[in-house]
Amino acid sequence: MKIASYAPEVEAQMRNFYHSLSEKDRRRYAAIEAATLDHGGITYICRVLCCDAGTVTRGQQDLKKPLPEKEKPIRQPGSGRKSVLATTAGLDEAFLEVLKDHTAGSPMEESVKWSNLSRSDIAEKLKQHGFTVSVTVVDQLLDKHGFRRRQAFKVEAGKKNIPHRDEQFKNIEHLKETYQARGNPVMRMDVKKKS
């Protein structure tokens, strides 16, 4: 009975992978491949991987033993793909620039701050600065720079179409820019406290 064989391109991939492994891992890989095949599998795998039957036999013996404790970690500490925050130059600066005019905070606790922009709004504005990031990265940026999520309490206001609703905010923004352009300091103070 003829043993089932892999396509030539798969055999080439198997050889490439086999030769990229350490000696011990080569033995184990060859043994696993041979175990998936019927009678004659060892001979076939030895031909494909250019190894001898003794390599496969030793690999089979290795697989019967428990993995030594020192071999268990797959990655060295500090290895693996670095985060976008760690590898993208200028992202933090662009994020802070985007939130510069969209940041508020608690008058009672200096460290508490939030933004009126949604995560998707921030991602869109970052795209305009040349950084295409997901909302997951935006979450990481918010956390890194100490922003908290804020629950809106006035749920009715958004349902009504109130004309001129944003005029006061636009006026405040205009005045702020005018004063800053003249070199004057601008101080913002929230005086309303929830009881």
Molecular structure report:
The mean pLDDT is 80. The protein starts with 7 loop residues before the first helix and ends in a 14-residue tail after the last helix. Helix 2 packs across helix 3 and helix 2 (23-35) crosses helix 4 (53-64). Among the domains are: 8-67; 84-158, no CATH class. It has 9 helices and 2 strands; from the N terminus they run H-H-H-H-H-H-E-E-H-H-H. The protein has 195 residues and is mainly alpha-helical. Helix content is 49%, strand content 3%. It has helices at 8-20, 23-35, 41-49, 53-64, 84-87, 91-99, 119-128, 135-144, 167-181, and strands at 103-105, 113-115. The longest helix is centred in the C-terminal third of the chain and has 15 residues, at 167-181. Strands 1-2 form a two-stranded antiparallel ribbon. It is rod-shaped and about 85 Å long.
| Mass-distribution shape | rod-shaped
Helix content: 40-55%
Q: How many strands in all? A: 2
Contiguous low-pLDDT stretches (5 residues minimum) are none
Average the pLDDT over all residues and give the rounded result.
80
Radius of gyration: 31 Å
The number of helical elements comes to 9
Major sheet description = 2 strands, antiparallel
The separation of the N and C termini measures: 85 Å
**What oligomeric state best describes the polypeptide chains here?**
single chain
